[in-house]
Amino acid sequence: MKYLMLAAVALVLAGCASVNTGWDYDPAANFSQYKTYAWVDDKVSAEEYQHDGLLSQRVHNAVDNELAAKGFVKVAPEEAQLLVNYLTKIDKRATVDTFNAGMGYGPYGYRGWWGASNSYSQVREYDVGSLVLDLIDAKSSQLVWRGTAKNVVREYKTPEQRINKVNQAAKAVLENFPPKAK
User: Fold this and answer.
1) Each residue of 54-111: pLDDT tens digit?
2) Beta bridge partners of 93
3) Most buried pick, 3, 15, 50, 135, via CB within 10 A?
């Protein structure tokens, strides 16, 4: 079940609405020193095998493209100045909409005194997917930057649509990396 939810995260950054992004970083880190990166090696057991390897490939490709556009070079992990890792997750959310339907007004404008009044509530559940991207200083093993993207999960029918949404998410997450010097 957990792995089926990961597949849905590939669809997370969907629709016309902009992606909710956020980032945080270590202000003591000197981001101008970082020029190279490598992905954290995923060591998974047979029980933890990720069923959606396509999502992993898409995230890696999208982040690689964004970092390359910023001048970073992908190298072997032992040569990297930064290590890159990511996490995807799905959260359930709900909204409650209440509608009032009635006729007439009572004394002093109060609704329903002289007429019928009814209230209807509608609860809508939906999934919000998150992509969390961590950049870790390879020498100190300290987290130096974290970016997140969140959006409502929508269904996409083609691989091209899914790739496009993952690319948009990576671009949005890395928009403010490296942090601008003050």
Assistant:
1) 888 999 999 999 999 999 999 999 999 999 999 887 777 777 777 776 655 555 555 5
2) 126
3) 135
Which residues are CB-neighbours of 121 under 8 A, at least 6 positions away? 96, 97, 98, 99
CA distance 19 to 5: 19
Cα(163)–Cα(60) distance, integer angstroms: 11
Determine how β-strand 20-25 pairs with β-strand 143-152: antiparallel
CB of 67 closer than 8 Å to CB of 171 = no
Residue with tokens 């300290």: 142
For residue 125, CA distances in Å to 4, 71, 128 come to 18, 42, 10
Q: State the burial class of residue 42 (Cβ atoms within 10 Å of its Cβ: 0-12, 13-18, 19+).
A: exposed
* Higher local confidence (pLDDT), 140 or 94: 140
